[in-house]
Specification:
Elements (H helix, E strand, L loop, with lengths): L19 E2 L5 E2 L24 H5 L3 H6 L5 H4 L7 H21 L2 H7 L4 H9 L18 H14 L1 H13 L12 H12 L3 E4 L14 E4 L5 E12 L6 E10 L2 E10 L5 E6 L10 E12 L17 H34 L1 E2 L2 E2 L4 H25 L11 H31 L2 H6 L7 H9 L8 H11 L30 H27 L3 H6 L1 H29 L5 H24 L6 H10 L15
Parallel strand pairs: 3-6, 4-6
Antiparallel strand pairs: 1-2, 4-5, 5-9, 6-7, 8-9, 10-11
Helix pairs in contact: 4-7, 7-8, 7-10, 8-10, 10-11, 10-12, 11-12, 11-18, 11-19, 12-14, 12-15, 12-18, 15-18, 16-18, 18-19
The structure holds flavin-adenine dinucleotide.
Length: about 625
């Protein structure tokens, strides 16, 4: 049976309207209702070429945005989930809802800090650790979007339970099957997935996740039949409950060094859980520090690769970006939607000066900002996942990379805003509220939980820096083949009939800003011919990536609103307007920072604090043990 991720959901030709020329020379379809697969051959003639994912992802919407083109023709018929596929997802969500109501007490998991083993086994026996696994292996056979939807639903009831499913589905052994070549290793992984193993991804080490070279080592045995692993990993999700782990380690063999990936059975002698981490949030998530002492791994359980680092192998990076969709983006959406709902409940209950709180100007702005941000995040998630299969995943790679920061930072804003809205009742624990008979909304827990997403999978500013280097600027170094196209201003986009006048203006503005960003990237690459010199100016890259993320989000939010309006649902237009208005203020601020030519002496202040005592007066009256 075909792997579900390979199912192509091509829209039948009859569903497409007459073709219009676009300013980019590509065929454009009018915004007629568009169902099914957005990644069609007409739009991406090379989509089945066996290219490196980075090359293919440049054909996608964000890849084109890096080149200065807002390809409205790609997004305007915003994809809708295929009806049959949606029914499958709805059915599993309904089933999961019943299961969670009967078996999961999120407050108890928060209080005890553990997911009971019986619950874990119940999740396993019902196949919730096999959401996207093909049915031939006993899995649910869900599409990527349905896997995401089910995980989001579980997270909305109990975040740590959803998180353990997400880590397994997103980064576990089954998640990376597509990157394993046919042969004994693939057969072994498939067999273990069929057995129902729980797994995770063990990469981070005490020295820091951003260090490229793993200090965990893999050394071939003398007889050449195995590798021996030694080292330590920290913050490994599912680490203390996993049967099988994908472990990164530095292999030295034949005078060559490779950072490779090993499939390690946790029953192997020498593997041990050193400790479970206690975290600020996500209480109950099994996350652990792990030790590897002479752990023997059969030779065929190393991922064969020609590259020096697993990150450079085709598909592994796109698959790990997909993993972050399940882990970070689904979680951010789940918590944000709950904040939106709690805001409504609170505002229904509370009055100020004898008036409904919801009648006040500032409150209306805050509530609409949260509603608009939820819609924008959903637009990013849907665009990044709808109709995507393993074959077409690279076309959404840059989108999925961007989604991590877009979602986690938006969720942090929403949780913080909701905290101010609910005021003291927001800051109070759910337990305390329940004890005094007030609605026990666990908002303070959400604020603690949400902070994890800006760290897990990479600290946000470091993710921005890496994404700018590997995404945006990979198009400008060593040289930009499209440089000449950027010399003249972009032609305006065709008027979008399904957007309000305000949103049409936002769209034209976004297109101009996309061009401005590309032109700035080109100018920077010319000013700094040595890419390393530009990359050392970290803030510049971070700002450029944040600009990209804002422009991507604005584009898909407008496209989603236009598509819904074309399907008779005009309500999202106002949400898109609220979102874009706020995003434009952020854009202005980002540009102001990017344009600044005279700056404070950051290096000097930092150095004075770190290397001397001239700034120690800052600590006056604070009693710190030295
Ligand atoms: C809830 C949670 C779940 C997790 N799950 C997993 C998991 O399942 N598997 C796994 O392997 N890991 C996991 N992690 C680890 C996570 O991926 C790392 O914590 C994250 O990538 C940050 O790495 P670090 O904590 O080692 O910080 P470091 O990388 O050590 O960074 C420390 C600080 O230095 C900064 N920094 C580092 N390098 C640079 C640089 N070049 N320039 C400027 N600043 C820099 C960072 O931004 C940060 O502020 C998890 C973490 C959390 C919180």
């Amino acid at each position: 049976m075909a792997h579900p991720h390979h199912r192509a959901l091509h829209a039948p030709p009859a569903a497409r309207g007459p073709l219009l020329p676009s300013r980019c020379g590509a065929e454009v379809h009018p915004a007629t209702p568009h169902r099914g697969h957005p990644l069609q051959k007409e739009q991406h003639p090379m989509s089945h070429e066996p290219l490196h994912p980075a090359t293919r992802s440049r054909e996608g919407f964000v890849g084109q945005l890096f080149a200065g083109k807002l390809r409205w023709d790609l997004v305007r018929a915003f994809p809708e989930q295929d009806a049959e596929e949606r029914r499958q997802g709805d059915a599993v969500i309904a089933e999961v809802e019943q299961f969670l109501a009967a078996h999961v007490d999120p407050d108890e998991i928060e209080r005890t800090g553990r997911i009971p083993p019986e619950l874990r086994e119940a999740l396993r026996s019902r196949g919730y650790y096999k959401l996207q696994v093909e049915q031939a292996l006993g899995g649910r056979g869900l599409s990527m979007l349905n896997t995401f939807r089910v995980i989001e639903a579980v997270m909305s009831v109990c975040l740590p339970v959803g998180y353990t499913l997400a880590i397994h589905s997103g980064l576990g052994a089954g998640a990376i099957i597509e990157a394993v070549q046919d042969g004994p290793l693939k057969d072994y992984v498939r067999g273990r997935v069929a057995d129902g193993v729980i797994s995770g991804w063990a990469d981070t080490e005490p020295i820091g996740a951003s260090v490229r070279r793993a200090s965990t080592t893999a050394v071939p045995t003398e007889d050449g039949t195995a590798y021996v692993l030694n080292g330590e990993k920290v913050f490994i999700g599912n680490g203390s409950i996993a049967d099988l782990l994908n472990v990164t380690a530095t292999l030295q063999e034949g005078g060559r060094e490779q950072i490779s990936l090993f499939f390690v059975e946790t029953s192997s002698p020498g593997f041990h859980v050193r400790a479970e981490h206690g975290l600020m949030g996500l209480r109950g998530l099994p996350i652990a520090a792990l030790g590897f002492e002479n752990v023997r791994v059969p030779k065929e359980r190393m991922l064969a690769m020609a590259q020096e680092h697993w990150r450079n192998t085709p598909l592994l990076e796109p698959l790990s970006a997909l993993g972050r969709m399940y882990i970070i983006v689904a979680a951010s959406l789940a918590l944000s939607k709950k904040c939106l709902q709690w805001s409504r409940g609170f505002l229904h209950r509370r009055l100020a000066q004898g008036r409904r709180l919801g009648d006040f100007d500032e409150i209306q702005r805050q509530v609409s900002a949260t509603a608009a941000e939820v819609f924008a995040m959903e637009s990013v998630a849907r665009w990044s996942l709808t109709g995507v299969t393993a074959d077409t995943l690279p076309l959404r790679w840059f989108e999925q990379v961007a989604a991590k920061n877009i979602a986690s930072l938006t969720c942090a804003r929403i949780a913080d805003r909701t905290m101010s809205l609910l005021a003291a009742e927001g800051y109070e624990t759910a337990e305390s509220k329940a004890a005094r008979g007030t609605t026990p909304v666990p908002l303070e827990r959400t604020l603690r939980d949400a902070r994890a997403f800006r760290v897990a999978g990479g600290v946000d500013f470091l993710v921005d820096h890496k994404a700018a280097r590997e995404g945006l600027f990979s198009l400008y170094y060593p040289s930009a083949s499209h440089a000449a196209e950027l010399e003249s201003p972009p032609a305006p986009l065709p008027v979008e009939e399904h957007l309000s006048p305000r949103n049409r203006e936002h769209l034209q503005h976004t297109a101009r800003e996309v061009h401005r960003l590309a032109k700035r990237s080109l100018d920077l690459s010319r000013r700094y011919p040595d890419a390393g010199v530009l990359y050392a100016r970290q803030r510049t890259l971070i700002l450029m990536n944040q600009l990209c993320n804002e422009l991507f989000t604005m584009s898909v939010t407008l496209a989603h609103a236009a598509a819904l309006a074309s399907r008779g649902q005009p309500q999202a237009d106002a949400l898109a307007d609220v979102y874009c208005t706020a995003a434009r203020y952020r854009l202005e601020d980002l540009w102001r920072q990017a344009d600044a030519d005279a700056e404070p002496d950051f290096a000097g202040v930092s150095e004075r604090w770190l290397s001397g005592d001239t700034l120690d007066f800052l600590l006056s009256d604070v009693l710190i043990r030295r």
